[in-house]
Amino acid sequence: MEKEKKQEEKKQEGNAGNAKEMSFWEHLDELRGTIFRSAAGIVICMTAVFLNKYLLFDVIILGPTDSEFPLYSLFNSLSYAWDMPSLQIEPFSLSFQNVTVSGQFFTHISTSFWFGLVLSFPWIIYQIWLFVRPALYENERKAATGAFGFSSLLFFLGIAVGYFLALPLAVKFLGTYQVSDRVDNVIALTSYIDLFVVLEISMGLLFQLPILVFMLGRIGILRRWMLRKYRRHAIVVIMTVVAVVSPTVDPVSMLALSLPIWLLYEASVYLCPK
Q1: pLDDT tens-digit readout, 87-112
Q2: SS (H, E, C) the chain
């Protein structure tokens, strides 16, 4: 048994030694290949998105700017079913303006890039994994393999939660908010696109929290008791953020926004080592 253990340790040392034997320029060449392959994946996805302009803008991006969006319809149905007028979403439709000659064309290009980046996220994560894998011991590889694989799933789950939940609530609140009836909202297209991109990518990255906690726990920086100790503080922060972005103050809409974030925090607690 002791002999097998020593053989395994030598094997792990050999794996790490192989990675260390590479020269600086060889590492640099590997990094350049990783960056090139990742960029190629982004360009391919970006091109596919760019060629589907109607689906990109009319269906996906501008979907939450109309009261027929699924979340608004759900709130209206719950309003009738539960006799809660505060849940009712009044009919609305936002329109946007372009103020520069080349604005719409460059908006099309930039938006296609961000969508290409999002769609190629699994490919980029895979390339990063191929780059760092040779430097890891066998036991570290097993832990990191699951983390890298789960990362893409969480990223797209965050994107979905952002698009179907957080974004439409933010759009409804911010897009229809008025300081006075005498002031109309004239929204620039680029302003809405910025909100869309920042919120979606932020939600995708926010859902990487369990992966980050897991990795920090593996290297001894975080422990489960720390997250449990500050759970109440985390709940207060979550509810405060939700209260700011929610278009209504009723408990249903606040729960709809805060529940996914709170579940994310709880998942992080149990993924962190004791």
Answers
A1: 777 787 888 999 889 989 999 999 99
A2: CHHHHHHHHHHHHHHHHHHHCCCHHHHHHHHHHHHHHHHHHHHHHHHHHHCCHHHHHHHHHCHHHECCCHHHHHHHHHHHHHCCHHHCCCCCECCEECCCCCHHHHHHHHHHHHHHHHHCHHHHHHHHHHHHHHHCCHHHHHHHHHHHHHHHHHHHHHHHHHHHHHHHHHHHHHHHCCCCCCCCCCEEHHHHHHHHHHHHHHHHHHCCHHHHHHHHHHCCCCCHHHHHHCHHHHHHHHHHHHHHHCCCCCHHHHHHHHHHHHHHHHHHHHHCCC
What tens digit of pLDDT does each residue of 14-59 get? 444 444 466 667 778 888 888 999 999 999 999 999 999 999 999 9
